[in-house]
TrEMBL record:
<dbReference type="InterPro" id="IPR001451">
    <property type="entry name" value="Hexapep"/>
</dbReference>
<dbReference type="Pfam" id="PF14602">
    <property type="entry name" value="Hexapep_2"/>
</dbReference>
<dbReference type="InterPro" id="IPR051159">
    <property type="entry name" value="Hexapeptide_acetyltransf"/>
</dbReference>
<keyword id="KW-0808">Transferase</keyword>
<dbReference type="InterPro" id="IPR018357">
    <property type="entry name" value="Hexapep_transf_CS"/>
</dbReference>
<protein>
    <submittedName>
        <fullName>Acetyltransferase-like isoleucine patch superfamily enzyme</fullName>
    </submittedName>
</protein>
<keyword id="KW-0677">Repeat</keyword>
<dbReference type="GO" id="GO:0016740">
    <property type="term" value="F:transferase activity"/>
</dbReference>
<dbReference type="InterPro" id="IPR011004">
    <property type="entry name" value="Trimer_LpxA-like_sf"/>
</dbReference>
Length: 177
């Protein structure tokens, strides 16, 4: 009985914590603090564990952040969009990961906006802790990015990458689901 009450409490408080989202699916669970601004869309069964450090999801004017169903976001994650950031289904994003689709300022004149290009994480992607994903990157289905990597270029499906900048370590076997 106690477990059911705890689960119900998490589901109810999660509705409050995701109230600023443009769209939200069923059975979203948020533990801790979630900061949302702009057009943010959460799919069904998204889980956010921000118990010791808040998670930030910020989309600028005309931009959109979409998180696919059954994806998991860990503490300290920050996702910023000036255009579009899309996270597919069943993705896992590790602690303190940073995903940005823009430079957010011009390198020559900091008062001007920087270049932007959409970021896409396809289904079943896993990002380790402290990964940085920069503008214009597409990470293919089933890819894994090792902890601390900086992803500056596209990652092929079912590939393990790591390092700064991220480079291919090996290919992975496809899982039949």
């Amino acid at each position: 009985m106690r477990h059911k009450l705890q689960t119900l409490w998490v589901l109810v408080t999660s509705l409050v914590k995701t109230r600023n989202c443009t769209q939200r699916g069923k059975l979203i669970r948020v533990w801790g603090q979630l900061q949302v601004s702009g057009d943010v869309r959460l799919g069904e069964r998204v889980r956010v564990r921000a118990t010791h450090v808040p998670v930030e999801l910020a989309a600028g004017p005309g931009a959109c952040i979409t998180i696919g169903e059954s994806s998991f976001i860990n503490s300290g994650v920050s996702i910023g969009a000036q255009e579009q950031v899309t996270v597919g289904k069943n993705c896992a994003i590790g602690n303190y990961t940073l995903i940005m689709d823009s430079d957010f300022h011009n390198p020559y004149d900091h008062t001007l906006p920087g270049a932007a290009a959409p970021v896409v994480l396809e289904d079943d992607v896993w990002l380790g802790a402290r990964v940085t994903v920069l503008k214009g990157v597409r990470i293919g289905r089933g890819a894994v990015v090792a902890a601390g990597a900086v992803v500056t270029r596209d990652v092929a499906p079912y590939t393990l990458v790591g390092g700064v900048p991220a480079r291919v370590i090996r290919t992975l076997e496809k899982l039949d689901r």
